[in-house]
Task: structure prediction
Amino acid sequence: MSLYKYPIVLLSVVILLLSSCTSRKKILYFSDIAKDSANVFNNYPTEAHKIVSGDLLYINFYSFNKPLSEIFNRQQTVTNSYSMWNSPANVYVNSFSVNDSGSVLLPLIGLVKVSDLSIDEATKTIQNKAKNYVNDVTVTIKLLNYRYTVLGEVNHPGTYINYNDDLTIFQAVANAGDASIYGNKTKTTIIRETKDGKKVIRFDFTDIKVLSSEAYYIKPNDIIYIEPVRNKSFKQNLPNIALLFSSITTTILVLNYIDK
Result:
């Protein structure tokens, strides 16, 4: 038997093969890198994170005056340093929380306004106030709630904690196990919190210009979403469809044999 005697079956097989294909452009990073490989891309200027209400800060005071250091670092003298940070609950309890008015409450110093300041600016502000009590104090501040979320067609979607001040979009997606086989790298979205509200940034992983876009560096609380390719549901059902066509073909062969 020849499939050419059954044009409907032949046409169905052709459609099946064509619809199961995914454009190479949608699965490659920098698919146009060849024509731009000699170019140098300047990174999009990054603005330091400004502290907002609800941020959790690690604040450490160091001084040769140990009694005063222990007063400032009261939390670290109460419990083991590892147990202080080994769970989200402990981080919340032991960190300094920025209240609704944008201030943190510090031992001896009292309330200090830190909202709308960068980490470096807040460090200088608190250190200057601490020097009213001890001259040789050094202050270290870290943002503890630097989280980002990766959703959509990645192998390990979820919320991740970042310890890198300059985390790139590629590192963020790599931490989530990279895009899945159904990920459409030409359609990716970042939802970013700004002082004016939520900002939606759309970009294309296959376009090398992403290296100089505002999407290149991740910000705290960014939500990254990689869309699925349009024929995802078809691809997922491809084994069942193939089995169906196999059954149809077998039936036709049997009927053709009986007719003979």
About this structure: The first strand starts at residue 56 and ends at 62. The radius of gyration is 28 Å. The chain has ten helices and ten strands. Strands lie at 56-62, 96-97, 103-106, 110-113, 138-143, 147-152, 158-161, 183-194, 197-203, 223-228.
